[in-house]
Specification:
two-stranded antiparallel ribbon; mainly alpha; Arc Repressor Mutant, subunit A; 2 strands; 6 helices
């Protein structure tokens, strides 16, 4: 099966993304699963342990262990839920959000800047290609 260079490069990007996540996880002194939870908290803000479990595809007991580990290293803390007095939310600490974004922001900005040398039409083609690739991923996940 012949695979085009763009597809091979996309595979390399996936591998590099995994390596980058390992690097950032190490910088934050967490494992990859805990870093995945941190990503959701950094992007979404406070989440319930149940929502963390849902997003990670783990049990609520496993999510509790993840939150305990993140709490122990100072990345998050628990607060009472704003509307359900029986529940809690997990809140990322501002220092941890800053620390994570200091590592992630240059990658995001660099990837975005890579489009600057392309014409509007080329950017539209790249965007459409990536939209279709994302669609292929979604189709495979929906099987």
């Amino acid at each position: 099966m012949d695979v085009r260079e763009a597809s091979l490069l996309f595979r390399e990007i996936l591998d590099l993304t995994a390596e980058f996540e390992v690097d950032v996880s190490a910088a934050l002194s967490v494992n990859r699963r805990d870093f995945e939870a941190m990503q959701h908290l950094v992007m979404s803000g406070s989440l319930s342990p149940t929502e963390i479990a849902r997003r990670l595809g783990v049990t609520t007991a496993a999510a509790t262990v993840i939150v305990d580990r993140l709490t122990a290293v100072g990345h998050v803390h628990r607060e009472p839920h704003p509307t359900d007095r029986r529940a809690v939310v997990v809140v990322p600490t501002p220092a941890s959000v800053t620390q994570a974004m200091e590592r992630i922001r240059p990658l995001i900005q660099g990837v975005d800047a890579a489009l600057d040398d392309f014409s509007t039409e080329e950017q539209a083609a790249i965007t459409e290609y990536l939209r279709r690739v994302a669609g292929v991923y979604r189709e495979q996940l929906d099987r």
